[in-house]
Structure formats: C-alpha cells, structure tokens
Amino acid sequence: MTPTEDLRRLLRAAKHRLVMNSSPVIARWKGECPVCRRETTFEARHEWFRDHLICTACERGSIPRERALMQALEQIAPSWRSLQLHESSPGEQAASRVLRRDCKNYLATQYFPEVEPGSFKFGVRCENLEAQTLPDESFDVVITQDVMEHVFHPDRVYQEIYRTLRRGGFYIHTVPIYKGLVATERRASLAPDGSVIHHLDPEYHQNPIDPSGSLVTFHYGYDLPDLIAEWTPFDVEVRRFHQRSVGIVAEFSEVVICRKPFRADVSYST
C-alpha cells in the first residue's frame, strides 16, 4: 500500500474508534475476567462481540479471545508466570500486557521483513515463525493470538514451534475457525519470485506494527486439528466457549492447544 492509502486506513480506524466510543451500550453484565482476574462489568457497544465485548476493569479492555486464551493458559499451565514463555507478534492489548508484566521469563518477538532474524529492532527480537533462529527446546509455552491466519506456510510454523518447545510444553493460540468450512481454505500464496498470488479477494486484519494491515492467507476449517497432526506429532485439542461469567461470548472463540509429547521417540516426516 502507498503512504496515502496507509493514512486513509489509519484515519478510518480512528473514526471507527470515535464512533464506537460514543455509541450506546447494547449489552452489559457482571462477571470475573480471566485476564485482569478482577470482578468486572463486561459491556459492548457493537453486536460483533469478538472485538467489542470489553472488560471494563482491564487496562486496554480485554476482548473475548484474550479471555479465552488466558483461561486456557491458567488451566493447563498454572505455573506459567515462572516458565519460559515465547509470545510471537504481541500487540498492546490486555492479555499481552499481562503476560509481559507477570511472566519473569517472557520473550516477545516480531517479524520485521527488513531485519535479520535473531537481531533486534526497537529492542524487540526479530523472528520469522516459519524459520526461527531460536534454539531447540527453549520454551515451556508458546503463545500467538490471531497470527496463524496470516502465515503462508503454517506447516513450517507448527514444526518450528514444535522444535522450540520442551517436551510436555504447550503451544496455545487463538485463530479463527470458520464453522461453515469442513476443509481449510487457502486465500493467498507466494509465487517463486516472492510475489503474492491471491486465490480469493484480499482480506486484511489489523497489524500492531504495520498500519497497512496483515493479509489473511487462510480461513481454517473443521480439519485444522487433523492438519496440525499431519504436520507434527503434537497432541491437539480445540476448546470452544460460551461462558457469560467470564465474558467469553463471541464468534471465533476457539483456543487451539498443542502439546509436545514427553516421549522422545515420536517423530514425523515432511
């Protein structure tokens, strides 16, 4: 995108936030937030709860997918605050801020196309999820939030995360899974010269480090756990929620949990 298009996108986003902040509340109830761990009021000013059902007690107002992720993390790795934890592509949202603040062994990475992987920009380590420079078995937990729908080679990403996890470690991530899709749909791919081939109309999501947004490369379907199991020896679980008491009420509320087996003789072929 051109600088002019970037500016227009930013202005549209700012206008949208202004309109939303002045809109009437259409839903409100009390509960307990898994992110800030406080009694709170959940409220929404837009019917698309996934992005707009906020916790009023959270700094930066957590949304349902963040609450789903943090609830899963607390349940399966309750000692996460003292574990080695890698989060790829965090933004400034509530859950990432809590992870960064409370986990003493927290590593955040971002992918900067112009930066050598393993080096730093603005104090943040650059890593390409598809080809990481991180050592084998470095982490107990890896987290991504709505990242996997933007990669071109998800098989490589899952394999690299598997490599960098310790035995028994978890990859916990949110990713939109489309209830109308039995089979995963590829929306874009890379040509040999590195150019993007669009198989369907381009779709973009917000990107914390790029105002032009992130291209959506996949719409994942019901077969996602089977695909992950084809690509890696991960044990895979998908959790889906509708829990008013903790503010997890929205479309695309799934959390995908991949666990690296303890056994060393589990392998896969590519």
UniProtKB/TrEMBL annotation:
InterPro entries: Methyltransf_11, SAM-dependent_MTases_sf. One of its GO terms (molecular function) is S-adenosylmethionine-dependent methyltransferase activity. SUPFAM superfamilies: S-adenosyl-L-methionine-dependent methyltransferases (SSF53335). Signal peptide: none annotated. GO terms for biological process: methylation. Pfam families: Methyltransf_11. It comes from the Bacteria. This is SAM-dependent methyltransferase. It comes from Methylosinus trichosporium (strain ATCC 35070 / NCIMB 11131 / UNIQEM 75 / OB3b).
